[in-house]
Amino acid sequence: MALLLDPLFSPKSVAVIGASANQDRTGYKFTHELLMRFPGKVFPINPKGGEVDGRPMYKSMAEAGEPADLALILVNKKAALAAVTDCAVHGVKVGVMYTAGFGEMGEEGARIQQEMVRVANEHGMRLVGPNCMGVFSHPAGLNLTGEEIPGGDIALISQSGNIGFSLWYDAANYLHTGFSRFVGFGNQADIAVHEYIDYCADDPMSKIIVIYLEGLRPGSGLDFIRSASAAAKKKPVVILKGGRSTAGKRAASSHTGSLAGNEALYSAAFEKAGIVEVKRLDELMPVAQTLMLCPPLKSGNIIVGGTGGGHMIVSTDAAEREGFCMPPFSPEAEEKKEALLYDFAPKGNPFEQAGTFIDNLDVWAQLGEVMLEEPQMDGWFTFGNIGGYLPDLVTNGVDWEAGMRHLVEVKNRFGKPVVAFSLCARSDYPCERVLREGGIPVFDSPDIAMRAMRALREVQVYRDRNLEIWERVIRTGAEPACFAEARTRESRNLTEPEAYGLMESYGIPTAPYTLAKSAEEAASAAEKLGYPVVMKVVSPQIIHKSDYGAVRVGLQNAAAAREAYDAILASCREKAPGAEVHGVLVTRMVSGQEIIAGLVHDRQFGPTLMVGLGGVFVEILKDVNFCILPGTRKELRGKIESLKGYPLLNGARGREKADVDALVELLYNLGRLAVENPEIQEMDINPIFVSAEGAVAADARIIVDGRGSCRGIGPQ
């Protein structure tokens, strides 16, 4: 896969379709840039011919006489298809469609976009964009963006050109870093984002992959997860997802023609792939630089210490928000630390130097010797006006630059990450550069610096997890007969007995039940099942049964069952007079902690499972997690344990511990059901009751759609 994009990132020849001799035109600027800096062949193409910078302009690729690896297409929308055709027919391997106004602008633009891709692919050409910011490749001496980009080690894959601007103009300059590759992929009409990830994963010139994403192409979600997961095993991958809010999703649609999708599903996909997600643009480059400079954090135990009482407080607040712990030092280490500081300096962890550095600029390194040796401490977050307060200060022959160099030496000896917050991070003091070059990132915000440090912990967690991304495999036999029956109904839903039967065939426990078609049958069923029982109507047209007075709970005897049967049917005749009633389901009443589980067939990611605590937790607190299927048992357990309400399952406040293993198995089988039966469009099991005795589904709703084409579940 990666080799297919070599002509994009390492071309030997480039054609400019829309070259110009007019120095005010974009076509001239790109052509001039290539002629001045690109080491390979350049073919300026203009249907009028002429010259540019003393070089002939060809009227077409045919006149150029030889194919180009790469073509930058700058012509207007009306001429775009003809330009793509000329390139494709004459052997161009990759075209970069800089022009906008296609799929992001409506049906006509989408039609032309599709035709460009069809023509290109028919002749073996791939297409970047359209509506894109071009490509940059530092190792190849290639810049087709029209902007100056600093060289470095970061591969940037961005759906937006303006995001690229903000990163290489501001963040890269402030952090003294740069880029190995950049591609602005725009509408991704042909080459999808996961293909760029594949290339950068194998690129020795790129130490990290940074992605700005607005949306994936429909159906490409699992390909994205596989590519990102494979890349994350080789180097860090950081992503910012745009288009999360309702307004943001509308903007993403108009900007790139992509579907922004559901925020929770994208976050679940990023977690599954093992890539670090940031939620703010100003976090993206700091997190990336930290992951390049520092080793992962083996645990969440860190030291928080520097100079400045207020900064100690806000740094501690940030550490707790990011989930870090600050364990105490051993008595021996505490004694050594106190000996280095003023008597009035705060004790323990976190701590503050109280200005000790004014008399001893080596105090950072000396503290590092003491603190990083502690086995329970896996990293150090330090803070202060590093280099900016008394910049000409020298103590015992040590200036700021030497003091920070000594700190780097100590950090290297222990091999633990150190991250710094400094008011001078945006200044060009030599000591800040010494820190960064020595593997200690420095940022001007404690919140951003601490978020970057958390990324080091996330990467370690993902590596320890070593999650395998399985294939999807549908069943080999015919679809269940109840699906065809459901398609005859307007709602396309299975009745509850049909849903229970399907679930039981996949080993999903359900509460014991019987379908009764008379009041006497209901009473007899209740006697056999054992009291108390629940009764609810079975009707293809009545889905939300409680809205129709069609549910009765806690029934304790046969008379109550008979009365409930008659009352349910009477209510349905009144409130849903045209509904087809198959009878009343009599179910043994079960108890335990309520859990809700659901399935959706997402347009990008396919079958996806939701799990959360039921009742008020899902209705008000929205305490749910998502898992892109297939999911392993270990992965599903992680989704359960990371719920805010998980302590209720784990015996909080004297509660009996629930059988979480049984819930994991139920969800695993539910995932199998969803993957192997792609006809299922939506499914809700609400509630599942989980107790010490196990997990039991007590209600189910399944909606089917057209026949799907998902592929398989992997090893268990």
Task: Compile the SSE list and pairings.
Blueprint (H helix, E strand, L loop, with lengths): L5 H4 L3 E5 L8 H12 L3 E5 L5 E2 L2 E2 L4 H4 L5 E4 L3 H13 L4 E4 L9 H16 L3 E3 L5 E4 L4 E2 L7 E8 L2 H15 L3 E6 L8 H9 L6 E6 L7 H12 L4 E5 L4 H11 L6 H11 L2 E3 L2 H13 L9 E4 L2 H13 L9 H10 L10 E2 L10 H9 L8 E5 L9 E2 L2 E2 H15 L3 E5 L7 H8 L4 E2 L2 H20 L15 H7 L8 H10 L7 E4 L2 H11 L3 E6 L12 E5 L2 H18 L7 E6 L4 E10 L3 E8 L2 H4 L4 E5 L4 H9 L18 H17 L3 E12 L2 E4 L3 E4 L12
Parallel strand pairs: 1-2, 1-5, 5-6, 6-7, 10-11, 10-12, 12-13, 13-14, 15-16, 15-17, 17-20, 20-21
Antiparallel strand pairs: 3-4, 8-9, 8-11, 18-19, 22-25, 23-24, 23-25, 26-27, 26-29, 27-28, 29-30, 29-31
How would you characterize this protein structure?
- The structure is a single chain.
- With 716 residues, the chain is of the alpha/beta class.
- The chain is built from 24 helices and 31 strands.
- It has a 7-stranded mixed sheet with strand order 9-8-11-10-12-13-14, with helices on both faces. Strands 26, 27, 28, 29, 30 and 31 form a 6-stranded antiparallel sheet that branches.
- Helix 4 (77-89) packs parallel to helix 5 and helix 11 packs across helix 17 (446-465).
- The longest helix has 20 residues, at 446-465.
- The model is unreliable at 253-261 and 708-716 (pLDDT under 50).
Summed up, the helix count is 24
Radius of gyration: 31 Å
Uncertain residue ranges: 253-261, 708-716
First-last Cα distance:
29 Å
Tell me, rounded to a whole number, the average pLDDT: 92
Q: Helix coverage percent of residues?
A: 25-40%
Tally of strands: 31
Which word captures the global form? flat
Instruction: Give the oligomeric state of the chains in this entry, treating copies of one chain as homo and distinct chains as hetero.
Output: single chain
Q: In terms of structural class, how would the helical and strand content be classed?
A: alpha/beta
Strand order across the biggest sheet? 9-8-11-10-12-13-14
Largest sheet: 7 strands, mixed
